[in-house]
Amino acid sequence: MNLRTRVGLHLAACAAATVAGSSSAAIVWSGIVNLNVPSNIDGVYLNVVTGATATSGFAGYDVNPYGSSTLNWFSPAASTTGGFVRGGGSSATLVDNLAFGTVIGAGAAFAYGNGGSESTGATAFNLSSTQNLVGFRFVNEAGGGVHYGWMRMEIGATLGGQPRAIVEWAYESVAGATITAGTIPAPGAVALLGLAGLAGRRRRA
Fold first, then answer.
1. What region, left, alpha or beta, does residue 101 occupy, with left being phi > 0 and alpha being psi -120 to 50 degrees?
2. Nearest C-alpha neighbor of 188 from the set 32, 23, 59, 40
3. How many Å separate Cα 13 from the centre of its chain?
4. For the chain, what are the domain ranges?
5. pTM here?
6. Between the CA of residue 120 and those of 89, 124, 166, what are the distances in Å?
């Protein structure tokens, strides 16, 4: 079975599962935003619910990618409520570039506070690519509870350089509900990250 056929079957299955579960949970999607992440100590601060951004911390922000020499991640929440999925590659502490379809939820390990980006191994970030998926959790100040989400990142020739941007993000509206990396609401159902990207998004260490 070739890649195109396998991906087609996978997308169809994911779409069916998304529609089937839509009565109890809903994915909130940002749309394509291409939010620049400056290559400095501040980066960008983002509230994923409201879409508010700033170049310095503000009340209610949920995620903060930043860094001048590499890509770092900061979460304002405590160890049980905030952070980014980590530990799937060569390091137990570095934030991972997730495979499309990875389930993000309470069973994942999260780096909270400050965390760096995986640069080697199976979950290394792809340079000069928009095919990088990061899982995160946050407290939704609007409705309370811990929610899970993902963001797609554009990375330039180095982790610390430009261009560098949050291309899009999504999260589950139901507290505690898992989300699959790359999924967006129906009718799109699944984010089509591109057959070429899916074929080559992993590089060998």
1. left
2. 32
3. 21
4. 3-200
5. 0.80
6. 7, 5, 21
Tell me the C-alpha distance between 164 and 139, whole Å: 25
Strands (E), the chain: 27-29, 35-36, 45-46, 53-54, 64-66, 72-74, 83-85, 103-104, 110-111, 114-115, 129-139, 146-155, 165-172, 179-180
- How far apart CA 180 and CA 157 sit, in angstroms, is 27
Joined together, the tokens standing for residue 95 give 């934030």
Residues 17-74 have pLDDT tens digits of 343 333 357 999 999 999 999 999 999 999 999 999 999 999 999 999 999 999 999 9
Torsion angles phi and psi, residue 145, rounded to 5: 85, 160
Strand partners of residue 20: none
The single-letter DSSP state of residue 98 is P
Burial 169-180 (b: 16+ CB within 10 A, else e): bbbbbbeebebb
* Nearest in space to 121 (alpha carbons), one of 200, 182, 196, 202: 202
d(C-alpha 74, C-alpha 83), whole Å: 7
